[in-house]
Every structure is written in structure tokens, then in C-alpha cells.
Design brief:
CATH topology of the largest domain: Calcium-transporting ATPase, transmembrane domain
CATH class of the largest domain: Mainly Alpha
Number of helices: 29
Largest sheet: 8 strands, antiparallel
Radius of gyration: 34 Å
CATH architecture of the largest domain: Up-down Bundle
Number of strands: 22
CATH superfamily of the largest domain: Calcium-transporting ATPase, transmembrane domain
Mean pLDDT: 80
Distance between the termini: 80 Å
Shape: elongated
Length: about 850
């Protein structure tokens, strides 16, 4: 139990409980210990993956195949089930371990007063009647009653959904799950353990949540559509064969059912999950810890990143650069006054801590206090101590300027310092004690202040700042620096970090005058925003999103929470305030935004790989379905066996998709992969089905109804088409460019060639050929199949290039567009 001391010496000492009283309450079961299940158990994960709807159907088919003695077919069908279960269990077990580690990482600590001293303990060690100390950005851990308050305001949005700050005074109730946003206080624990709201919120926050990403929702929709199509196809096939053959024999019926069920590309959802899980692991290794799974997909969509300079461009530490007197006091006297001011502030921040340490300040008797707020940009202390008596104010020069006595002229100094990237504050004074609140109880800045000094602070650029900004530029991500500091200061630092010398800087004062339309334009055009309030930060993020941008926001302080909530991707520093971490999708473990470019590129790389993976899965499912549909209409025998289907799935989809995921390169992708992929999938699937069906029916005719031989011819045709599809998906040179842009990577094409060799080995080895129920065909048959595949490749390349689907969609959108007034529909 660590001992600290944050209780102001000016405040009366509260003793709190003694250790004996703590043990007595703990023995009565009045402790804050509640057993929590951080996530699903491994048994539950295994059960839910093993007995999904699709897997249950496949299990039933496997049993039927075994009963009929079709062991080979049963093993191949069972391999699909095993693969699905293994992939799902591994991913979710990894997610469970990650979730448990996150819960430990973000677990808050408690500051409790016992025996008159403040200690840091684990929340589980809290007991009823403990006195707990809370400061800015800290979480209220148990329900209780305020016994001491210093300008304390609380954010209860996690409980009420309202983001308004609630002032808290002695006697008021505070609830666990809320956060102290400004000021400080001490509250007495009243509801602990299972009675506490915090325990319920924490349990809910740590429970496993199956949050679907946009891509997962698209894939889920595709699976449901395919399931409906397969059900309809099953009914159509059963009806057709009942008319022609008076029903299929039991063996053939079970085999057909196995093929039809496998048309639902259930492996697609697992590939999505697996690839994003791999991305999350890689991101964690690079210092970006994923707290919500949908953050992986969000990283691939980001095109605008908003950040504050502090903790991102610059280090988290300030140092005094210069003190310039504006009154008769000398520098040594000013250093003493500034040091005492910093040491006497009860709701301290980095600035006051720097003043207290650098100027060796002492605590003085505080008569009244206005804590610093990023919205006000100033703080004040009314000190009633003979060496330092009166009202002292510290804040932004442009904010305090209207309240100063006339005659103060320091604009040139402020401009010169801010141009160097220094942060500048004005220290002012009044000898009396004017009221600090208006009749409504809100803080107001007193007038007739005497300027004492200008103080400049330097903030050193992080070593990795320039390289990181360059990598953001390479990834196509625009930066917006939104800060509470002076806009010129922030702009100077941004230029030092490598941003354009011609960047535009805008102040919060200007933003306050803009309507939503003008704000959208400024948010898009400017790069630096200075002297902005937390509400303006959130408004800027919202404005960028209104224009279609996918926005990430980095924050570490309490004032960043509104903008973090507005962003598509919320990123927090590990050392940031608990409330910032609680709303973040990603936590930067090393407190450096240098981890983000690699994380964003990783997200782009995974999504780029998924683009081709989805297309290959859907092409195979659709062409097999169309071939089955065509043969049923023609009254021909069922064209595919489970073993043929397994071989096709393995060589044309199974092996290639893993390779394509591993070899994928970062790049921008359409928001809706399914819709954008239709131009690739539909022509490919329809043409493969057409040419395959022609080969099947032709060979069935010339062979006198030899179904196994015709099935072998169909398998070879669709196998070759599926392998040729790989270089079309990843064009190694201009000759293959049709539906997809030039990739230049020969590895996928070489892989397709190797898989063709594997198929040749299967045909050439009697044991393998027999297992997969294939026939060796005459050379003339292979020549015909080769010509058919060449014809197919030519036809599908032409179809991709003319892009009928894309033209039809564009025409439809043009027809639906509103006609401008005065313009004829014929024009």
C-alpha cells in the first residue's frame, strides 16, 4: 500500500479509518471485493464455435455419410467443420486473453485516507466508510457522499448519457462510474462490493462483446443471402430430380446435400475474424493495444487524424524558458510568486507543477480558487497570506488582456515567443479580493488586473515526431492539430515537426463566429486550431465527419473526452486520464503516436487482402451454385461430389486466400467491399458457370452418359478457371489488368502455377486420383478443356473491361439524381 499526500495543508486533516476498523469491516463482508468473470469461459467459446448453425448441418451430413460408408466424403466434410472450429476458437481465445490483459492494464487505483494519511490501494481493498480522494480525470470507484470539495465538477455521462458537468458540494452524492473533471474532493464510501454501481459498470465493460465490424456485417449479410439461395436451390434441385429421376438415391442425396450446404461460404467470416485478430496482435506488438475489435477495421478507414500537440508532437514535460517582468518586481521576486502560486493550487496541472518545481514554491493560505479550465483558459487564487496577499491570475494573454489595466503593451513579446513555438502565459494581480462568481454562480474574470509578468514554456518535440508525420503522409492520412494553446505557437511547432510551412492556423475565437457550413469549410482547409475549447474540439471532429471523412482522435486529458466520443476511432495514451482511456478504442502503450502509422498501415493491409479474399470466396460459391442450377434445369445428373468440391475449395480458395492475406500491401479500399466487388464477382462466376456447364453437358453427351467422366471434366475446367482467376485478382503485369489495377507482384501467379502442379499430381497419382474420384480423360478432352478455359479468360477479361455493372449503376444513379430547375430531362 503506497503512501502519498495530496491533501492541501490548508484543509483540515481528516483521519479516516484506522487499520483495525478496516479489518473489522472487511471481516463483516463490507469490502469492495466482487468476483468478476472478465469474459466467456473457454468451454463456452468452444461450444458456441463448434455448434454454429452451419456446423450443425455439416455434422448431421458427416454422420449420414459415415452411416452410408462414405468415409472419404465424411472426412473431407468433417475437415471443413474442424477448420471452422479451430479458427474460431483460436481467435476468440486470443481475444479473451487480450481482454483480460486490458482489464488489468486499465484497472484504476484508489486514493484512500487512513490514519490521517493518504494511501494508494487497489479498488478491491476499499471498505465501507473509507474516505476516498479524487482529482481531475480520476474515476469515482464506489457510491458515496462528499465530505470535502474544492471546486469539484463531475461527469456522470456513463450513468445518465448526459455530458453536462455536475458541480458537487459537501453532502452531495457521487456515483461510481462517474469521473471528476475539475477540482478535487473527498467522499465517504457508502455502497461497496456488489451494491456499487462501479462494479456493475466494470463487469459490463469487461464482459466479452461480440461487436460486429462493418465488414463483418457485410459478410454476415452475404452469408444470410447465400443461405437463402442455397435453400431455394435445394428445393429447386429436389423438385427437378424428382420429376426426371423420381428422386435421387439416398447416397447421392446425402452427397448433394453436403455440396449444397458447403456453398454457404462460412469460411469467409472466419477469414475476416482471423485476419483482424492477426492485425490486432501485430498492432499490440507495435505499441497500439486494441480495446474494441471494430477498431481494427477503423484503422483501415482513417483518412484524417486529429491530435493535440502535447503528448503527441511534443513530450509531456514543460520547462520554463523565460520570465519577463511587466511591473516593478524583479525576476527573483516573480519566481517566488510564481512558485508559491503553483504550490498553492489544489487542482494542479502540468503548468502549475512546473512552476512549483522550477521556482521552489511554498503553499500559502487559499481564500478562494478558480481551477484552470480548458474552456476558460485561466485560473485564479485568492491568497490570504502576508507574503502573498491578494488575487493572482494565470492564463492566456489574449484572454486576460481585456481585464487588464490600460497601458500594458506586451503584444510584440508574445508574438516573438509564439513564433518560436513557445507557450506563453500572463501572470496578473489585484491587491483586493473581488468576487470570482457572477450572481448565477458561474466564474467570471475580474477587471483592473495589474500585469506582473509574461512566462514562456518550452515543449520539446518528440524524437519520432518528424518521421511519424512523414509516415502519415505516405499512408494518405491528413493531420489536424487541435490544441488549447496559442494557434501561432502550435503552428510553429507543427512546422518544426515537418508539416507544410504554408499550413493555415485558426483560433477558437474565429471558430466561435462560424455557422455549421462555414465551420465545415474551415475544418477541412485549416491544419492547426489553437485556443479551442473542448466543445470546439468535438465540433471540429463532427464537422470533418459530416464531410465524409473517417476521423481518428488522439487524446489523453479530461478535456479531450468530448472529441474522443465524437471520433470514428478514439485513441488514448496509456498514461492519460482514466476517463480518456475508458472511451478509447485504442490505447498507445508507449505513450507515443509513433505507433499509429504502422497500425493504420496494418489495418489497410489486412482490409486490402480481404478485398480479394471475399471475391474469391463468392466467385466459387456462385459458380458452383449456378452449375448445379443449370444441370437441374437440363435434367442432367448432379455435377459435383463432396470430394470434387473439397478439392476445388482447397486449391482455388483455401490455400490462395491465406497467401493473399499474408502478401497483401497497404492501400485504400472502398467502404463497401461487397458492393464494389460485384463488378468482379458477377462476370467471373457467371462465365465460369457457363463454360463449365457447357463442358459438363458436352462431355456427358459424347461419353454416352458417363457421369464420373463428365464430373472430372467439369472439375478440371473449374479448377483451371479458379487458378487463372488468381493472377486476374493480383495482376503481375499489364496483360492481366482487367478488373483490378496492376499489382506487380508475381508471387500469387507463381502460387497459382504451383497449385496447378498439385492438381496434376492428384490426377497422376492413382491413390490420390481414386480418393478424389477423378478420371483420367483422353488428351483430346484436355485440349477441349484448355480451349474452353482460354475462351473463358478472353470473355471474362472483356466483360471486366467494359464494366457493364458499373455503367448500369452509374446510369441508374444519374436517372435518380434530381433535375436542376429549368433543365430539360432530355438534356
Amino acid at each position: 500500500m503506497a503512501t502519498v499526500d495530496r491533501i492541501p495543508t490548508s484543509a483540515p486533516r481528516l483521519a479516516g479509518l484506522s487499520e483495525a476498523e478496516v479489518e473489522l469491516r472487511r471481516g463483516r463482508g463490507e469490502g469492495n471485493v466482487v468476483p468478476l468473470d472478465s469474459s466467456r469461459s473457454y468451454r463456452r467459446i468452444l461450444f458456441q464455435n463448434a455448434f454454429s448453425f452451419i456446423n450443425t448441418l455439416l455434422f448431421a451430413i458427416v454422420i449420414l455419410l459415415l452411416v452410408l460408408g462414405l468415409v472419404g466424403d465424411a472426412l473431407l466434410t468433417a475437415s471443413l467443420v474442424v477448420a471452422n472450429v479451430v479458427v474460431g476458437v483460436i481467435q476468440e481465445a486470443r481475444a479473451k486473453r487480450q481482454l483480460d490483459r486490458i482489464a488489468l492494464l486499465t484497472r484504476p487505483s484508489a486514493s484512500v485516507i487512513r490514519d490521517g494519511r493518504e494511501h494508494t490501494i487497489d479498488p478491491a481493498a476499499i471498505v465501507r466508510d473509507d474516505l476516498l480522494v479524487v482529482g481531475p480525470g480520476e474515476q469515482i470507484l464506489v457510491d458515496g457522499r462528499i465530505v470535502e470539495a474544492h471546486e469539484m465538477t463531475v461527469d456522470e455521462s456513463l450513468l445518465t448519457g448526459e455530458s453536462d458537468l455536475i458541480p458537487k458540494r459537501v453532502g452531495d452524492t457521487v456515483h461510481s462510474g462517474s469521473f471528476c473533471m475539475a477540482g478535487s474532493g473527498i467522499y465517504e464510501a457508502q455502497l461497496v462490493g456488489a451494491e456499487s454501481v462501479a462494479q456493475r459498470i466494470t463487469a459490463q465493460a469487461r464482459e466479452f462483446r461480440d461487436v460486429k465490424t462493418p465488414l463483418q456485417r457485410e459478410v454476415g449479410l452475404a452469408l444470410r443471402v447465400m443461405l437463402v439461395l442455397v435453400a431455394a436451390l435445394t428445393l429447386q434441385v429436389a423438385g427437378a430430380y424428382r420429376q426426371v429421376y423420381h428422386g435421387l438415391p439416398l447416397v447421392e442425396s446425402v452427397q448433394a446435400a453436403a455440396v449444397l450446404v458447403s456453398l454457404v461460404p462460412q469460411g469467409l467470416s472466419f477469414m475476416v475474424t482471423l485476419n483482424y485478430a492477426m492485425a490486432a496482435v501485430r498492432m499490440a506488438g507495435k505499441g497500439a493495444l486494441i480495446q474494441r475489435m471494430n477498431a481494427v477495421e477503423s484503422t483501415s478507414n482513417i483518412d484524417v487524424l486529429c491530435l493535440d500537440k502535447t503528448g503527441t508532437l511534443t513530450s509531456n514535460q514543460l520547462q520554463i524558458d523565460a520570465i519577463q517582468p511587466l511591473d516593478s518586481a524583479d525576476v527573483d521576486e516573480l519566481r517566488r510568486l510564481l512558485g508559491d502560486y503553483g504550490a498553492s493550487t489544489t487542482s494542479g496541472n502540468r503548468t502549475t507543477s512546473t512552476l512549483a518545481e522550477a521556482c521552489a514554491g511554498r503553499e500559502r493560505v487559499v481564500r478562494d480558487e478558480v481551477p484552470f479550465s480548458s474552456a476558460r483558459k485561466w485560473s485564479a487564487l485568492a491568497l490570504d497570506d502576508p507574503p502573498m496577499r491578494g488575487l493572482y491570475v494565470l492564463g492566456a494573454p489574449e484572454v486576460l488582456a481585456p481585464a487588464l489595466r490600460s497601458g500594458a503593451d506586451f503584444a510584440a513579446t508574445v508574438d516573438a515567443w509564439t513564433a518560436r513555438g513557445l507557450r506563453v502565459l500572463l501572470f496578473a494581480y489585484r491587491a483586493d479580493f473581488p468576487p470570482l462568481r457572477d450572481p448565477a454562480g458561474d466564474y467570471r474574470l475580474p477587471y483592473e488586473l495589474i500585469p506582473l509578468a509574461l512566462v514562456s514554456f518550452s515543449d520539446v518535440l518528440r524524437p519520432e515526431a518528424q518521421a511519424t508525420i512523414e509516415r502519415f503522409s505516405q499512408a494518405g492520412i491528413a493531420l489536424k492539430i487541435i490544441s488549447g494553446d496559442n494557434a501561432d505557437t502550435v503552428a510553429a511547432l507543427a512546422r518544426q515537426a515537418g508539416l507544410s510551412p504554408r499550413l493555415r492556423a485558426v483560433t477558437g475565437t474565429t471558430l466561435a463566429t462560424l455557422d455549421p457550413g462555414a465551420l465545415d469549410l474551415v475544418a477541412n482547409d485549416a491544419t492547426v486550431f489553437g485556443r479551442v475549447t473542448p466543445e470546439q474540439k468535438a465540433a471540429l471532429v463532427e464537422a470533418l465527419r459530416r464531410q465524409g471523412h473517417y476521423v481518428a482522435m488522439i487524446g489523453d486529458g479530461v478535456n479531450d473526452v468530448p472529441s474522443l466520443k465524437q471520433a470514428d476511432l478514439a485513441v488514448a495514451m496509456r498514461s492519460g486520464s482514466p476517463v480518456a482511456r475508458s472511451v478509447a478504442d485504442v490505447v498507445l502503450l508507449g505513450d507515443s503516436f509513433g505507433a499509429l502509422p504502422a497500425a493504420f498501415l496494418e489495418g489497410q493491409r489486412i482490409r486490402k487482402g480481404m478485398e480479394d479474399i471475399i471475391r474469391l470466396f463468392l466467385v466459387r460459391a456462385l459458380y458452383v451454385a449456378l452449375v448445379i442450377f443449370g444441370t437441374s434445369l437440363a435434367g442432367a445428373a448432379f455435377p459435383i461430389t463432396p470430394k470434387h468440391n473439397a478439392l476445388l475449395a482447397t486449391l482455388t480458395v483455401g490455400v490462395p486466400v491465406f497467401a493473399l492475406a499474408a502478401w497483401a500491401r497497404p492501400g485504400l479500399t472502398p467502404r463497401r467491399l461487397l458492393l464494389s466487388g460485384a463488378g468482379f464477382v458477377v462476370p467471373a462466376a457467371a462465365s465460369i458457370a457457363a463454360f463449365g456447364l457447357i463442358v459438363y453437358l458436352f462431355y456427358l453427351t459424347i461419353s454416352g452418359g458417363d457421369v464420373p467422366a463428365a464430373q472430372s471434366a467439369l472439375t478440371t475446367t473449374t479448377m483451371l478457371c479458379g487458378l487463372v482467376l488468381i493472377p486476374f485478382a493480383q495482376p503481375p503485369n499489364a496483360a492481366w489488368v482487367a478488373a483490378n489495377p496492376l499489382n506487380g507482384d508475381w508471387k500469387p501467379t507463381i502460387l497459382a502455377g504451383l497449385l496447378l502442379v498439385v492438381y496434376g499430381v492428384v490426377l497422376g497419382v492413382p491413390v490420390l486420383r481414386g480418393f478424389y474420384q477423378l478420371r483420367v480423360l483422353p488428351l483430346t478432352a484436355y485440349a477441349i478443356i484448355g480451349l474452353a478455359v482460354v475462351g473463358w479468360a478472353t470473355a471474362v477479361r472483356f466483360a471486366w473491361r467494359i464494366d457493364l455493372l458499373g455503367r448500369g449503376r452509374a446510369t441508374w444513379q444519374r436517372l435518380r439524381a434530381p433535375i436542376p430547375p429549368g433543365q430539360s430531362t432530355r438534356s
